[in-house]
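U., I forgot to send this yesterday:
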Amino acid sequence: MKPWKTRKDRLWWAAAISSLLVLGASCGHDFTLEDQARTSLTPVRTELSYFKDAHGRYLFLHGVNVSGSSKFPASFEPVSYVGKPFPLEDADRNFQTLRALGFNVIRLVMTWESVEHAGPGIYDTQYLDYIERVVAKANEYGIYCLMDMHQDLFSRHMAQLFNDGTDIPALDDPADVRRAEGCVLGRDTEGRPIHPNNIVRGDGAPMWVVALCLPEKDVGGDFWGLPLSCAQGEASTSAFFPFSLWGINIFLSLDVNRSFATFFAGRDIYPNYTVPGDGRNVQDYLQDHFTGAWRQVARRVAPYPNVIGYDILNEPSGFYILFSLYSIFWTEARSAPGGVLTEQRFGEVLDGYMNELRAQGVTQDAVTRLKRVLLANDVLPRSAREITASGFVPEAAASPYRPDPAAGVGLSVHFNRRYLQPFHEKVGRAILEEDPDAVFFLELALGSNETGVDGMMASPMLRPAGLTQIAYAPHWYTDIYPDFGENVPPREFTVEEKFFRDYRPGIETAIESSTFSLGNPPTVMGEFGTYFNFGGIDQSMAEDYVVSSVVLDRYYEAYEEMMLHRIQWCYSPENTAANGEGWNKEDFSVLGPDQEPRSALAYSRPYARYLSGKPVSAHFYSDFHYYDPDQYVPDPRREFEVVYKTKETESPTEVFVPPVQYPAGFYVYVSDGHCVYDHRRFILYHYPERRDPHTIHFLRLRPPYPDYGDSDWNYFFQGDRMIRKKP
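Result:
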């Protein structure tokens, strides 16, 4: 017998042996619910387009991201992320809440900065200890962990301070407070100075990484993140906009473009840029350190059976519009008379690039809106002097930081195949050395067109070589974000405006790459969600978050129809009425300002956690479902049904039964076999009997209905009370 490779191997076989013991105990009538709970969670593998556990059951993921507040540190001087997403002393309470809401997986949000903030190769062992203990605690509660290395706009050190017009300060970093005190944006009606009191920022990479990506800038200096009116030239602050729709900086911020370009494509863009004292090209240097940070995390968590996989990098950017345009304008401007483009030539160059985007498959509507935004915000240069002042092209002709314009022009073309795929392969190999059974949850680059025009001119990312177990984990949000602009109030919607929306077409587009080029692996909607402050937080709370509930129900009904795994954004115990999760005032958390669940009737839904046979269909009709009544028949409110084929294992199907949906108990209708209910964990076990290849099993839940007239139920459960009808 070959030796065990990892502790996870031992746990895998222990689970399999436990399964046999449970079966034996069950036949002898000594089986207990505690036995079943202990053996339910096992390591997970992929099989075709499914997740399977060690018992051979089909695993279904219904989860939440934990947490949006993990995007910034728990303390700033010194930097530490220990305590994000919540202090260890609060872990039991939070996992009890997560389990009671029915989430069987969390996407555990980390950042590169949380692991390696002190400098290259200096790892925060206290944070690594902490994150391992969070994973271990989740394991105690039977909850899987998807390890996520998060980023938005590259780094929290991509930021700009501004004044939001309120008396509520939202600056938590003492360095930002000091900068704000030295910046006067204007005077109020009584002549008092107006200082920045808020900040829009990214998250992800440590400050030392940003400094390497922007070598001519004073990253982290006294003026960093201040508007130009308070700074000392472009080199002293970041090229960043305090838009409420913060994501617009992906293509409007030259510094964000440059940082992503350096990290993913430094060998092509900056062929002469080797890191001083090291000798490696900047791309290799940065990616090697990012890989090292992942290795540290994987080494800590790989032994735990509830680590379901690794999401290598959240929402990598494929938006290099500003970088490409600067490359084009530099080539044009340096040969123009006086180094200045005429307005006619400027327009011709811009239109030429827009036409190229159309040829690559970008829609005409998107191109038109993009051009309008670029011109409205005046972010494009007209002279060589503007380009050198921005830092994009250093003045010194021999500078190693001068980009290759030709490489810059084509940076966005086939980005996933050329840059993201080898990046995943590189990081994935290192994680596999620590966790040979790792499952990788892949995301494609934002803004990168994978499918071309009707499949033509497509060069999509393929399944990364060497990563035998993958899942596809795209993100999709519908029309919920604030309008474009600075300090824009929350959107206002009515129930009628959202009630009849069909989200399935948008979701189908978002997951298309799974079958287009990745080989049809399991597909998980890794992020989706909604704001909870439509019309303002006070109005939303007064209406019991009804608009948000309807939006979430539309998501979930589509996912159930498609039988699609889903992980909602997000769960944050730090949510407040004033600042949401605390990052750019986003307010997505399923926990409200009172730290209690909100809109739970929309997302705390019955679902089959594990199925003993192949899934066929599922549905749940919440209180927010559109009911088209039939005469004399009550609406099937809160009806759940799952259908599956044959019986592939002796281990039971498990259905989560939300207490919030069935406070008065529930009826069970079942095709065959028998059921047992664990009222402490809200889990209904179905042990099907028939295993003929053509057998179709079903299990249906309904709350007690007045005068329903349906007497075909098999069980009624209310707490530890059970009524079983005789055949």
